[in-house]
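This follows on from our talk about sequence and fold. Please put the record directly below this note.
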Amino acid sequence: MIKKILNEFPTLSFYNKIQIFLIIIICFKMELREEGKFFNPLNFQQTKNMKGILSILVFLNHLDSLKLKKTSYYFFSRLTYGYILIGFFFFYSGYGLMKQYLTKNNYLKGFLRKRLITILIPFYLVNTICGLLFYYTGRKYYNSSNHLRLREKNPTIIFETFSGIIPAYYIGWYTIVLTILNILFYFSFKFIKYDLINIGIIFIFISYTLYYGSYTRVGLYYFRNLLWNQSTFSFFFGLIIAKFEKNIFAVVQKYHSLFLGIFLYIHFIFYDYLNKYQIYLEKYNINIDFNQYHYLKKGILFNFNCIINIIVVHIILMKVYLNNKILDFLGNISSDIYYYHKFGITLFRTDLIYFNNDGIYVFMSFIWAILIPLLMSYVNSFLVHFFLKIAFFNYNSFQEKNKQIKKIN
C-alpha cells in the first residue's frame, strides 16, 4: 500500500502544491492599508520578509532547473526567473548602502573592513567546503567543471578556486560581484562629494561590464558572465530610489492606482515580448555567448525586466504589509539559504544519496534548504563577529597610538 502511494506521488504537481503553500505563508497575518494610507515598502521588516520569500523562490528555481526528472513545471513559461530574484537582492543592497550613507554620520568610516568581512567570510566558508569536496572526491556534486579542474592538482587552478577568482561553488559569483560593487561604492563616495556623480560612475561601470562581456569572451571571468549582466542594474536602481525616495513615494502615493495599472500593463506586455524573444533564440539556435548583438540585447532586456518587477512588487507592498514569524525567520537566514540550498538539491541525486521518488526528493531538499542554512547561520555569525573584533580592535589601537604620537609632537 505504502509503495503504491509512493509510486503515484511523482505524478502530482509538486510546484502547484508548493505555490499554494508559499501563498499561504505570504498571506498569513498579512495587513492591508485602507484608502489613502500607505506602508513603507522598503522599511527593514518588509525588506527582510521579502528576502525570505526570495530565498525560497531561489531554491524553487534551482530545483526546477536542475533535478526533477518526472515533472517539468515551470513558473514562467520558457523563461528562467533566477536573474529577477538576484536583481531584487542587488536592489536591496544598493538601496541599503545609499540609505545608510544618507542617514548615518561617518557611515564610510570602517566601511570596507565591516562590509568585506560580513560579505566574504560566509562566501569563503562555503567555497572552501565545496572546493574540498571537489578536490578529495572528484565527484561532480554541483553544476560546475571545477571538480575536473581541481583533480589536475595544478597550483594555479587550486589558487583560482580557493581564492574565489573562479569559485568552486558556481553561484558564488553573486558574492564576488557584490563585493566589487561595494568597493566601487566606497571609493566613489569617499573621494567625490557629489552623490549623483558617484551614482553615475557606478552606472557607467555596470554598463561597461555589459558591453565588455558582449565584446570579448576572454579576460576576467566576472566581466564576461551574462548572469550578473542580467541583473546588476538593479543595484544602480536601488541607489536612485534611496536618493530620491521621498519625492518618488510622494508622487506614487498620490497616483497609486494609476502607477500600479501602468506598470502591471508594462510588466505583462514586456513579459510576453521576452517569451517570444526566447522562442526566437531557440528556433534559430542562437548562442548568445558568441553573438555580441544578442548578448547585449538580452542583457539590456533582462535588466529592464528586473527593474519592472521590482517596481510592481513595491507598489503593491505600499498597500500590503508582510508580517509573520515564518517570513521573519526565513529573512534572517536568507543569505545562508542562498549559499547552502543547492548542496541538498544536487547531493540527493548523486551516487552517494539518490532519492528516486520526486516527492521524497523535493521534501528532503526543502528540509536541507532550511536546517543546514540555519546551522550555518550560527557558524557564519560567530566567524563574522570574531573577525570584526580583530579588525576593529587593531584599527582602534592604531588610532589611539596615532593620537598619542600627535600629542607628544
Summary: The chain has two domains: 45-75+324-409, 79-323. The two ends are 88 Å apart (CA to CA). The chain is about 75% helix and 0% strand.
